[in-house]
Amino acid sequence: MSNATRFKKTSIIGLIIAFILIIIGIIVNLLPLDDNSMWRVLFGVSTLNFTLRATIPLALGAMAGILCERTGIINIGIEGMMLAGAFAGFVAKVATNDWPLMISLLVGVAAALAAGALMGYIHALFSIKFKMDQIISGTFLILLAGGLTAYLFNPDMVAEGKFSPIAIPVLSKIPVIGDIFFNNPPITYTALILVAVLHVALFHTKWGLRSRAAGEHPRAADTVGINVNFYRYLNTTLGGMVAGLAGGFLVLEAVGQFQEGMTAGRGFISLAAMIFGNWMPFGALGAATLFGYTQGVQNALLLAGVVNIPRHFISMLPYVVTIIAVAGFVGRVRPPAAEGKVYETEGSSE
Fold it and tell me: How far, in Å, CA of 311 to CA of 322, rounded?
């Protein structure tokens, strides 16, 4: 199957979902509707803006999962990597509060990336060198990050400032679309660009070919000189960095502060987006948009108070949609053939 055919079959659903949301949003916001109408609540600019903010950490988490699992390493520890990145970014930001704001924020981003990379390397080390069950290793990362951040977090620590939106000239003036896509802080732009970069890298570069070979046919890859475990170490560490950036987004761009357990299951929703998107960057982005939209609707309904449903049921919406989506599509997707399988080269202990 060609790259184009594979891309079309596995990503079209997610792209259609995102496209439909944008088109409906444009139409609704250009029509003279009352601000309290249900259409404005569900598809207003504020709801779609919140959808994008909710989508970014999910998309980054899904890209982290794709990087790892395309080489054959199962990664359910994205939640822990996100949380570690968020905490490291927060601590670095607090430690540099008296520095110029942009430098301080960039130091926080670097710390988030470093923490995620460390968590990714630990996962690769346990999975490859020590041959630990990869699901158990991922679970360990979640427990480790949750426990350490809760123990080390000082509620008196306050981070001062966060990334501000950067309006792109001309494009930001486009009605509706400009407000949503072209007036955002830098990590948001970075995440959207990263999806396209990762797709091109996976399917149009030597690194991508070798990474996919390590996850599909590691023995065949080894026979042609590809160091399978090297690519597994490399991609799992890179995946950790991307997940750490997702945590950094929460602290340095979305919230501005750290809270215990602030990832709130986003790592698991990212996994669902990755599966829904069939381990394809654009497919995963579309799925992340769907799940992000449910969070945007949840927020809009709670703020507008236009329905008489208890808020607890509304708060369940993102997780219910995630379960339904994965349950409906899990039998129609195919993970990398060698996913979760330890690979040992002949005459080697690894």
Answer: 18
Q: What is the pTM of this model?
A: 0.93
Residue with tokens 């959207």, as numbered in its chain: 192
How is 88-141 classified by DSSP, letter by letter?
HHHHHHHHTTTS-HHHHHHHHHHHHHHHHHHHHHHHHIIIIIS---HHHHHHHH
Q: Is 347 left (phi over 0), alpha (psi -120 to 50) or beta?
A: left
Task: Answer whether 232's CB lies under 8 Å from 67's CB.
Answer: no
Cα 284 to Cα 200: distance, rounded to the nearest angstrom: 15
Question: What is the rounded CA–CA span in Å between residue 11 and residue 277?
Answer: 6
CB atoms within 10 A of CB 314: 16
List the chain pLDDT tens, one digit each, 350 residues: 444 444 455 567 767 877 888 888 888 888 887 777 788 888 888 899 999 999 999 999 999 999 999 999 999 999 999 999 999 999 999 999 999 999 999 999 999 999 999 999 999 999 999 999 999 999 999 999 999 999 999 999 999 999 999 999 999 999 889 999 999 999 999 999 999 999 999 999 999 999 999 999 999 999 999 999 999 999 999 999 999 999 999 999 999 999 999 999 999 999 999 988 889 999 899 989 989 999 888 888 877 766 667 777 777 878 888 788 777 665 567 889 999 999 987 655 44
Contacts of 327 (CB under 8 A, 6+ apart): none
Alpha-helix runs per DSSP H in 45-100: 45-69, 78-95
Domain 3-332 has CATH 3.40.50: no
Amino acid at position 313, single letter: F
> In 3D, which of 97, 134, 138, 92 has the Cα closest to residue 119?
138
Exposure on the CB side of residue 186, measured as CA atoms within 13 A: 9
How many residues appear in the chain? 350
Cα(348)–Cα(130) distance, rounded to whole angstroms? 13
| Domain edges within the chain | 3-332
